[in-house]
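Ticket 4471: requesting a sanity check on a complex prediction with manganese (II) ion. Repro inputs:
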Amino acid sequence: MTMTTSLAALQAWVDSVAKLTQPENIHWCNGSDAENKRLINEMLRTGDLLELNPKTYPNCYLHRSHPSDVARVEHLTFVCTREQGDAGPNNLWMAPDEAHAKIDALFDGAMQGRTMYVIPYCMGPIESPYARLGVEITDSPYVVVNMRMMTRIGTDALKRIEREGTFVKGLHSTGDLDPEKRFIMHFPEELTIKSVGSGYGGNALLGKKCHALRIASWQARDEGWMAEHMLILGIENPLGEVHYIACAFPSACGKTNLAMLIAPESHKGWRVWTLGDDIAWLHMDEDGKLRAINPEAGYFGVVPGTNEKTNKNAFDMIHGDTIFTNVALTADNEPWWEDKKVGAPAVDWMGRKYDAANGPAAHPNSRFTVAAKRNPAYSTLAEAPRGVPISAIVFGGRRRELAPLVYEARDWNHGVLVGASVASETTAAATGEVGVVRRDPMAMKPFCGYNFADYWAHWLSFGEQSKLLPRIFHVNWFRQDAAGKFLWPGFGENLRVLRWIVDRCEERMGARDAAIGYLPEPGGIDLSGLDISTDTMDALLSVDPSKWQAEMAAVGEYIETFGDRVPAKLKAEHAKILKALNGA
Ligand code: OXD
Ligand code: MN
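Returned structure tokens:
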């Protein structure tokens, strides 16, 4: 085999994978346009991609995945550390030797007759000191073209890998898509990922969840930074001042929509800039400020619900250079999804003639993949090597009741408890029941590559290092009335809540001191031009002490399941809030 890299460790790994998987060809990806075109043409030939209407959706393609392979599979996702306690009760665990043996047996000969692609990639701007490197080996051309949009792949990444010598090894094979032979395994101590039997984004685009969250969270703990499931946005006021905010919400809870928000009519001169829609890497700078980069370079977003009103930026963005996965088609060969508001489905996501009796036309977790630069609200600071300083961290979940529209933690340690207490109704982003409330600390339940108790200790350790940390907030856009109607209009109107958050950070806004933290005072949230009653606002900002006592008791029980490793400081914060609630 011809030598294709000067880094002996990388070449040796590629050779050993080829020996195991026995591909027909090996292709090192350089990330060029020509290479991308060639792969797309090949997939058009094999039927892996279908071309969409070139007039209205130029350079757009549809991919249909196997119907059993449409979401992340948390029940098949493992963290394989030498000590089980290091993976923690929040992860499925397998001993590394056993895991390697099990998964290598599935990789044995898995690439026969296929091409093996070697994708060097960089998570983060290529010149960023905060960026980290990886190489994904895959037998899926769909993975290559998606990774090319989602990360920075090719020659420049390879050069940096060769210079630094350290990279995350990710091995992926689509296998035969038999759900019985599907595993997503992480070996954080070896900076290694092995994924077999799925072509779905979160399982197969290894730079995303597997590297940038599960492995990176481990690396971050060791190196003193944070890898989080957070969007990053800039909010610009009419004076041109910009504040940067990082928000952690569980999957399919509107991170992409918030990151691309368009100010409502009532807010002339306000703008939101997108830096990232899913993942933030946070580092403390010399002054003690937290700075964020988005390790990704594209969006892998949920399509249903995207329309001119809910997210015009996304709607416009995905009219070109986009790969759709599992959407429906109109008679004009345009992509179609529920709530698109234009057109009608002719063919469903499985390729059948559309029949409402078969359920939604597009899969509820159908996705778009698109380069971030296509976003009209894209902030060029997403390319800044040192990222942006973060003023506020915002947690949130999908809660029909209980959690108010917004509240602020008293300080960093309390904020860590607020993050650890996040719970949300499950969505179609992962296989399993939808709509049940589950604990999802920091929106990282599926993504934290180590024991949550240690992760909370890591979060708390930042509070000891700096007095200039971001303030921490919690939002809930999803509160409903007794009839199941959403109380808050959401989407562009969420800007009003972001403004309150920025005003709090700038110390130009008072707050009501409640047992759970600081809440907006009456009039604190600017409601000009919004048709919402005082009763509704009262309901949105109400804190029911007995429901909150029950909630905090449940949080306490949940934290206890992590045993002795739970930091005493977190328990002390919990006790404080419980006491305040009991006195309320
Ligand atoms: C995602 C997810 O795809 O969280 O971002 O599932
Ligand atoms: Mn996500």
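Notes from triage: Residues 72, 202, 251, 278, 300, 429 surround oxalic acid (ligand 1) (CB under 6 Å). Leaving this open until the requester confirms.
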